[in-house]
Amino acid sequence: MAFVLFLLPVSYVLSYAPYLACFYEDPPADSWETYGCQFCFDEEYTSHNHHAFFQPVEWLIDRTPLQEPLMRWGTVWGVGVKMRYDATIRCFERSGEI
Fold first, then answer.
1. How far apart are CA 66 and CA 13, in angstroms?
2. Is 54 within 8 Å of 19 (Cβ atoms)?
3. What is the C-alpha to C-alpha distance for residues 12 and 43, in angstroms, rounded to an integer?
4. Rounded distance between C-alpha atoms, residue 42 and residue 21, angstroms
5. Which residue in 61, 51, 65 sits closest to 19, CA to CA?
6. Cβ neighbours around 61 below 10 Å, total
7. Which residues are paired to 43 by β-bridges?
8. Cα distances (Å, whole numbers) of residue 50 to 20, 23, 40, 54, 56
9. What secondary structure letter does DSSP report for 53?
C-alpha cells in the first residue's frame, strides 16, 4: 500500500514531460533567443498553453529545488526548451510584466 502511495504522485509528476511531448505546441520560432536570453512573448501561444491538470507540477518547477531535475527529465523527452520557455512566461505573468 505504501508503495502505491509513493508511486502515484511520482508517476503524476513524471508524466508531465511525456504529456508535453505528445500534446503541446512548440513555442514560436522567433520567441526564444538563446543568445542573450531575450524573449518575445507570443500572446496567442501563452494563452493556449496553460495546463490546469498539471498546475501542481508547474508549481514544483517554478518554486522548488526540483526545477533542474524536472527540466533534465523534460530534455530526455525533447521538451526541455518548452518547459524553460513556459517557466519564464509564468514568472513574468506572476510579476505582472505580461
1. 11
2. yes
3. 28
4. 20
5. 51
6. 23
7. none
8. 11, 12, 18, 9, 12
9. G
Q: What is the pTM of this model?
A: 0.74
How confident is the prediction for the chain on average, in pLDDT? 79
- β-pairing, 38-39 with 32-33? antiparallel
d(CA 2, CA 7): 9
Predicted confidence at residue 27, as pLDDT, reads 57
Residue type at 23 in one-letter notation: F
Band (pLDDT 50/70/90 cuts) for residue 60 is: very high
| Residue 31 DSSP symbol | G
48/37 Cα distance (integer angstroms): 23
